[in-house]
């Protein structure tokens, strides 16, 4: 690790350095994708810590996903600034709430609602409103939106009208369901995900002593992806900061993609008005992508309209030129998936690692056909349930064995050079029959092997970053990752929705299903909703470092009516289409590929949440087992519950002491 604090500033450009060294007072970074915002704030924290100006425990870094938080913690440790809290708003709030609840309210914090849609169904039944499955999900989404925008049930109809939102049902009805839902939760002493933030806000607002205690703990705040902060999160942030202004926010209005859940770039764009003495830094050098990718991203934004568009920042690539983006039209979806799988196989053959490749789509239901095509092509891919990595039995067992070995002061039978942690891990796993070579065939045995191989790789990466680390350090790292549900990168192609790809990057990105009705999605009706879809595509395009492929298909099934059209956002960007708003197209290959002859045999289908293999027809259709929460829940409650029990187990009583 670098010696002094100044070493942390190496590898930053002058503007990023300005961010990293502005340790006091409000700082706002407005910058496009790939310009190093996340890097700048991570180095800023490390610089403050290394320079001795900032205590690690006094920093609260807020990120958008648990994965991003885990990555930031890892990076901070590499930079010699371990011990800094990097969490999502929810995780940070939950931790504080758990700690203060017994003192402020008494007793333990109520349980989190596990099946929220189910509870909404009961609430609807109570007020005699019939909702079908889809409506239930939509109404649950509306209740969420109302809560994060701090709208009480009575005000919901007016708020919907004001926001120009299209309610899935009569707003007066939704308001009644919302009232009944809140009532039901009270009766059962459960809270939902939004309540975690609402209650934390409530405690901090009503209890001055509690607010003071939190503020004396945290002096420095950093928020990544600030364009997607909700009014409720902002209120919490204001309470944490308490007018002190040691707040650094970074964001890109052109990447606002969560406004349907109540997030708004308003706070990012009005930061200067709220903090007139703020240091505002703009970054325009794009370090992530080739000039070709950046050109396409700029072209896409040049057509954007609306408020966020007024704040777009033209990106300038700092990288060597690479291949032109490829635009491909396919006859139908299976052909698109097979064509994509073929190209991925070629990329892997040319030396690109599978973990450096992603297939991104608009809705999760699109993943099935890609999972199938990749499996058929023999390409490993990462199941969406990969974040539940630490719950797999073999990983839990390995964790226990490693903990035991660490306590015993070395690997079981490792004998081995003490410092060689990966070798110790291999030895411990080897004692249970694991071999460095994969077993023949696929299925459960292979899955087990892959999980353990991922653990070995994690150990290798860990010691590369921290050569002095011991097995005990690795065990601590595993515990922390398990708590944050931060799975190691699995050596496989990533399949993810565009929303889930935020903040991440890959060497090769395949944006698939880019037809009208998908991007923009059919239910994006208002101009603002359509603009959000364009931003979503911008997020997708800017995930690529080097290879970028965009594709769509003319019909869903083979032999179907070729009624689909390519996304309107591609007009002017793909070859042979007239540029609108001066956006030039990239010279690219294009052509209609023939659908594959005959359907392939189906491989095993796995639950996309927990990875269990499925056999029930209904489950296979949903790609999800009955026990797992729906897409809407994203496994959040589950993960929270696991996280809480894990924390409780690790810390003993009282379990959530943030101050020790
Ligand atoms: P996004 O808006 O997508 O979240 P970002 O602005 O947060 O992007 P980062 O993820 O921080 O961008 O950086 C993008 C890539 O560029 C990363 O691989 C990062 O390591 C690299 N990078 C950033 N700044 C520099 C720099 N000064 N020199 C070299 N590489 C850099
Ligand atoms: Mg970022």
Identify low-pLDDT runs. 411-415, 580-602, 631-638, 653-660
Structural shape: globular
The average pLDDT score comes to 83
Q: Would you give the CATH topology of the largest domain?
A: Rossmann fold
Q: What is the strand tally?
A: 19
User: How would you characterize the largest beta sheet?
Assistant: 7 strands, parallel
Provide the helix percentage.
Answer: 40-55%
**Assigned CATH class of the largest domain:** Alpha Beta
The strands making up the biggest β-sheet line up spatially as 13-14-12-15-16-11-17
Second rung of CATH, namely the architecture of the largest domain = 3-Layer(aba) Sandwich
Strand content: 5-15%
Question: How many independent structural domains?
Answer: 4
Query: Alpha-carbon distance between the termini?
Result: 27 Å
Q: Determine the structural class based on helices, strands and strand pairing.
A: alpha/beta
Give me the CATH superfamily of the largest domain. Answer: P-loop containing nucleotide triphosphate hydrolases
Radius of gyration: 25 Å
Oligomer: single chain
């Amino acid at each position: 690790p670098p010696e002094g604090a100044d070493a942390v500033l190496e590898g930053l450009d002058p503007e990023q350095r300005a961010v990293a060294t502005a340790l006091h007072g409000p700082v706002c970074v407005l910058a496009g994708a790939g310009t190093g915002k996340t890097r700048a704030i991570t180095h800023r924290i490390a610089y403050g810590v290394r320079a001795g100006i900032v205590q690690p425990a006094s920093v609260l870094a807020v990120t958008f996903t648990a994965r991003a938080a885990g990555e930031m913690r890892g990076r901070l440790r590499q930079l010699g600034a371990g011990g800094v809290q990097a969490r999502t708003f929810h995780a940070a709030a939950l931790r504080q709430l758990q700690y203060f609840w017994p003192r402020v309210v008494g007793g333990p914090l109520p349980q989190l609602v596990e099946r929220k849609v189910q509870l909404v169904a009961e609430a609807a039944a109570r007020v005699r409103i019939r909702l079908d499955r889809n409506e239930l999900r939509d109404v649950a989404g509306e209740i969420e939106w109302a809560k994060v925008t701090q709208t009480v049930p009575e005000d919901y109809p007016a708020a919907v009208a004001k926001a120009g939102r299209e309610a899935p049902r009569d707003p007066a009805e939704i308001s009644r369901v919302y009232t009944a839902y809140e009532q039901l939760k009270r009766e059962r002493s459960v809270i939902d995900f939004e309540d975690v933030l609402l209650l934390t806000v409530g405690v901090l607002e009503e209890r001055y002593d509690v607010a003071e205690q939190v503020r004396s703990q945290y002096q420095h705040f950093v928020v990544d992806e600030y364009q997607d902060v909700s009014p409720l999160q902002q209120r919490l942030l204001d309470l944490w900061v308490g007018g002190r202004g040691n707040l650094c926010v970074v964001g890109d209005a052109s990447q606002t993609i969560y406004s349907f859940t109540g997030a708004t770039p308003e706070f990012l764009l009005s930061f200067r008005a709220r903090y007139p003495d703020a240091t505002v830094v703009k970054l325009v050098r794009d370090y992530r992508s080739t000039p070709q990718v950046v050109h396409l991203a700029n072209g896409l934004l040049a057509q954007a309209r609306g408020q966020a568009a007024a704040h777009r920042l033209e990106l300038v690539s700092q990288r060597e030129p690479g291949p032109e983006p490829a635009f491909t039209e396919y006859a139908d979806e299976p052909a698109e998936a097979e064509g994509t799988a073929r190209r991925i196989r070629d990329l892997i053959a040319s030396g690109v690692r599978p973990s450096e490749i992603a297939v991104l789509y608009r809705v999760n239901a699109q993943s099935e056909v890609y999972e199938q095509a990749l499996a058929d092509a023999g390409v490993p891919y990462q199941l969406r349930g990969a974040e539940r990595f630490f719950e797999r039995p073999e990983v839990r067992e390995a964790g226990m064995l490693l903990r035991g070995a660490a306590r015993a002061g070395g690997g079981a039978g490792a004998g081995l050079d003490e410092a060689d942690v990966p070798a110790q891990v291999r030895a411990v796993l080897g004692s249970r029959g694991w071999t460095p070579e994969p077993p023949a065939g696929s299925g459960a045995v292979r899955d087990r092997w892959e999980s353990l191989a991922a653990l070995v790789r994690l150990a290798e990466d860990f010691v590369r970053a921290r050569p002095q680390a011991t097995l005990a350090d690795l065990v601590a790292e595993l515990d922390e990752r398990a708590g944050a549900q931060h799975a190691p990168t699995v050596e496989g192609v990533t399949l993810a929705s565009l929303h889930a790809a935020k903040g991440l990057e890959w060497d090769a990105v395949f944006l698939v299903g880019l037809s009208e009705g998908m991007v923009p999605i059919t239910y994006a009706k208002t101009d603002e909703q359509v603009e959000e879809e364009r931003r979503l595509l911008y997020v997708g395009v800017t995930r690529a470092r080097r290879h970028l492929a965009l594709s769509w298909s003319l019909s869903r099934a083979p032999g179907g009516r070729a009624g689909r059209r390519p996304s309107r956002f591609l007009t002017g960007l793909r070859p042979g289409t007239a540029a609108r708003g001066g956006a030039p197209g990239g010279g690219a290959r294009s052509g209609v590929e023939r659908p594959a002859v005959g359907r392939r045999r189906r491989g095993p289908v796995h639950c996309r949440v927990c990875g269990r293999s499925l056999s029930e027809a209904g489950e296979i259709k949903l790609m999800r087992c009955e026990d797992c929460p729906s897409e809407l829940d994203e496994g959040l409650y589950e993960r929270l519950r696991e996280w809480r029990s894990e924390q409780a187990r690790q810390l003993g009583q009282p379990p959530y002491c943030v101050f020790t």
